[in-house]
Design goal:
heterodimer; A: 557 residues; alpha+beta; OB fold (Dihydrolipoamide Acetyltransferase, E2P); 27-stranded mixed beta sheet; 27 strands; 25% helix; B: 188 residues; mainly alpha; Rna Polymerase Sigma Factor, Chain: A; Arc Repressor Mutant, subunit A; 2 domains; 73% helix
């Protein structure tokens, strides 16, 4: 295939240089009909009449651009003059302001969130437009206006001064639009979730001025002492789910209120769907017939827009809502990170029997091994972890209450001291990301720290024999145009997918072979210093445009 | 479009506030940007608006652009690509103005116009079914005629990666176009 790529490129260069198509075709290997047809396709595209902007529109647009350019210059000039005149007057005001601030200012820690539980590669920029991404470090302070993003297989947690938390899952980005507070643990947070999945644990507010909001491309969630999840997918809307407490979700002038165990989907430009109880299924796809799937033994309706690329045998996570007629409707489908069957749904207890309960219209069996949380009664909202028995019946492994009696325990935080100023580095404009994958928030443990599950990464799945291919490995191979084996060779040597993603990006930006980037890492350099070093080398001399060398993958029998 | 030595001069003068240089930068690049955005969004009106936005963004970010270290056109296409991605996220469900309206030309035989409309619209439809990266390679490489190295820089990929992408894109496009032309022919 490499030879075909090179031959194709050579033929395209000949077309670029003006050589007639028939001559270019004549120069190709005579038995390579595939190559000839590709060259003809490329030539046909070049020769099309392509769309053109009409001259009148272009002229008007040009004028607008020039007017903006002129205004920019005028503003710059006018700013110079008032500075001298007002500086003296400002001095007196500044003294009074300083006094007021010292008396009335919020605690310093309220104006910053602390980045904790940093896993993989996490980056921070000073603003969405700046593009000055730097590698984030554990304990780093994050301020209003900054953006935090995570790479593949990476995550991080923002902890606020009074104990509320925001967890960023892999491939997610959040802008801190507002962050402040005042005495008495009054938290004021507004986040804008750009893409990906976040989970939120909000300590109950003690003051009516406190707020915690999450803005998304489709709606806003505002909470008051809650554990909930927000999942932004540009193509499939925003999925909100609540584990504890209550969340108001608004869009297009309509608001729905989600209580514990409920979820809603908000499409762009639409009002929120009615709240529904929800389900979470992780398991193998056992069958796919149109929109009717069976996953982990559970029948699920999956819209065709969500099915691309999946096939029977794939391990997937499906999150969705339970419709009034009992249909399990998928809202999100993603590849699972491990091969553990997990089945869960929420609903209201309708009846309690000795050997079976009816919850949300579904009969689940109970036996002596079923763990039942507390003193439950008809009407309680519960979460049910279940398994499918050989005869198809559902056996409850655990039934636990989801009402508001449990609130997240405030996590005692150390004073958010200012961390060393992150090194500034110039990076290209961040690209728009791909459609993020959604996930439901799982019911958290009583203690704030969740026991990490064994993941495909920690088990180095994909490094053993077999035909199974790691989905993250496939994604990165496609992203960087290298072989799956090449990506996995780094993974199997112990690098995380977030690190691999970053290494290839740095290699392209610097013009260095990716082996050199990994060698720097292997020598003990941190990613932040590696980035600085490569940028320093690239500004010292123009970057050479040289293909990255492919490392020899570790061949495993 | 070949970037000549005069382009860095224009950029430098525009950075220093020359509206005449800014105007020339617009004149040199607006059609390329519009073409790219027209295929990228499949919506003429959106492409026109976004073309203006590209140049406004250019004005904002021009002070930070380092002449001599990167291709200006590459940098401009990166801006256009980012805006196209943002546009797609915001407006996925809105109806689009199709590309057919671009094609009528004075004095042209209607059958020829219809044939060209069909082919151009087929291309747009086929492009819309490609993965983003393949679509960008097709637009930059074959519609805009950008050299391989420039496309690689614009998309933050290696040249080998772009070679592979363009081959796969052409294979997919060929298959899609053949299928669409067959369907169109059978519907006549």
């Amino acid at each position: 295939m490499d030879q075909t790529d090179s031959l194709l490129e050579e033929a395209l260069r000949q077309l670029d240089s003006g050589q007639p198509l028939d001559q270019v075709l004549a120069s190709l290997p005579p038995d390579n009909h595939e190559l000839a047809s590709l060259v003809q396709t490329a030539a046909a595209i070049r020769n099309l009449d392509h769309p053109r902007l009409q001259p009148a529109s272009a002229h008007a647009q040009r004028q607008r651009v020039l007017n903006t350019a002129k205004k920019g210059q005028a503003t710059h000039r006018s700013l110079k003059w008032p500075r001298m005149a007002t500086s003296l007057g400002l001095a007196g005001v500044a003294l009074l302001a300083l006094l007021a601030v010292l008396v009335f200012r919020a605690p310093a820690s309220a104006r910053a969130a602390t980045l904790t539980d940093v896993q993989g590669v996490v980056e921070v920029a000073s603003s969405p437009e700046a593009g000055d991404w730097t590698i984030a470090t554990e304990g780093q302070s994050i301020h209003q206006g900054e953006v935090v993003r995570t790479r593949p297989d990476s995550s991080a947690r923002l902890v606020y001064f009074e104990g509320s938390q925001t967890l960023l899952e892999a491939d997610s980005a959040v802008l801190i639009e507002a962050l402040s507070g005042s005495w008495g643990k009054v938290l004021k947070v507004q986040l804008r979730q750009l893409y990906g999945q976040t989970d939120h644990r909000v300590v109950p507010f003690q003051n009516k001025n406190a707020f915690y909001r999450v803005e998304t491309p489709a709606g806003m969630a505002e909470v008051h002492g809650t554990v909930f999840g927000v999942d932004v997918d540009p193509t499939d809307g925003v999925y909100y789910s609540v584990d504890h407490g209550k969340v108001a979700v608004s869009q297009q002038g309509a608001t729905v209120f989600l209580t514990a165990g409920q979820a809603t989907l908000v499409e762009p430009q639409s009002t929120p769907e009615d709240p529904s109880y929800a389900f979470y299924i992780q398991g193998p796809i056992e069958s796919m017939e149109g929109e009717s799937w069976v996953v982990g033994g559970t029948p699920v309706t999956v819209a065709s827009s969500l099915t691309t690329g999946f096939q029977p045998g794939d391990w997937v996570v499906i999150r969705g809502r339970i419709l009034p007629d009992g249909t399990y409707l998928a809202d999100r489908v993603t590849y699972a990170k491990n091969e553990q069957v997990k089945l869960r749904f929420t609903g209201v207890i309708e009846s309690i029997g000795d050997s079976s309960w009816i919850i949300g219209g579904k009969t689940v069996l109970v036996n002596h091994e079923t763990e039942i949380d507390g003193d439950l009664s008809v009407g309680d909202v519960v979460s049910v972890n279940y398994l499918i028995q050989p005869d198809g019946s559902w056996l409850a492994k655990e039934i636990e209450a989801l009402e508001n009696e449990e609130h997240p325990t405030p996590t005692p935080t150390s004073t958010a001291e200012e961390s060393p100023t992150p090194e500034e580095s110039e990076t290209p404009t961040p690209e728009g990301s791909e459609a993020p994958t959604p996930e439901i928030t799982e019911t958290p443990e009583a203690t704030p720290t969740l026991t990490p599950e064994p993941t495909l990464e920690s088990n180095r799945a994909g490094c053993e024999n077999g035909t199974w291919q790691h989905p993250e490995g496939l994604k990165l191979a496609a992203r960087w145009g290298v072989s799956y084996n090449e990506i996995m060779s780094w993974f199997c040597q112990g690098y995380g997918f977030g690190e691999i993603d970053l290494a290839y990006e740095l290699a392209i930006q610097s013009g260095k072979p990716v082996t050199e980037v990994f060698a720097m890492r292997a020598s003990g350099m941190g990613w932040g210093n590696i980035k600085k070093a490569l940028e320093a080398q690239s500004t010292a001399q123009p970057p050479r445009e040289k293909p990255t060398q492919k490392p020899k993958p570790n061949k495993k029998p | 479009m070949i970037e000549t030595r005069t382009l860095p001069d224009l950029v430098t003068r525009a950075q220093r506030g020359s509206t005449e240089a800014t105007g020339q930068l617009y004149e040199r690049h607006y059609q390329s940007i519009f073409r790219y955005l027209a295929y990228r969004t499949g919506d003429l009106r959106a492409a026109e608006d976004l073309t203006g936005d590209v140049f406004l963004k250019m004005l904002e970010a021009l002070p930070n652009f380092r002449v001599g270290t990167a291709s200006f056109r590459t940098w401009l296409f990166q801006i256009a690509r980012n805006l196209a991605i943002d546009h797609y996220r915001r407006n996925r469900n809105r109806p689009v103005q199709p590309l057919e309206e671009v094609f009528p030309a004075d004095g042209e035989h209607p059958e020829d116009v219809a044939q060209r409309q069909l082919t151009g619209e087929l291309l747009r439809q086929a492009l819309s079914r490609l993965p983003d990266d393949q679509r960008d390679v097709v637009l930059m490489r074959f519609v805009e005629g950008m050299p391989l190295a420039e496309v690689a820089a614009a998309l933050h990929r290696s040249e080998d990666a772009i070679k592979g992408l363009q081959r796969r894109a052409l294979i997919n496009l060929r298959t899609l176009l053949e299928s669409m032309e067959e369907n169109h022919g059978s519907n006549r």
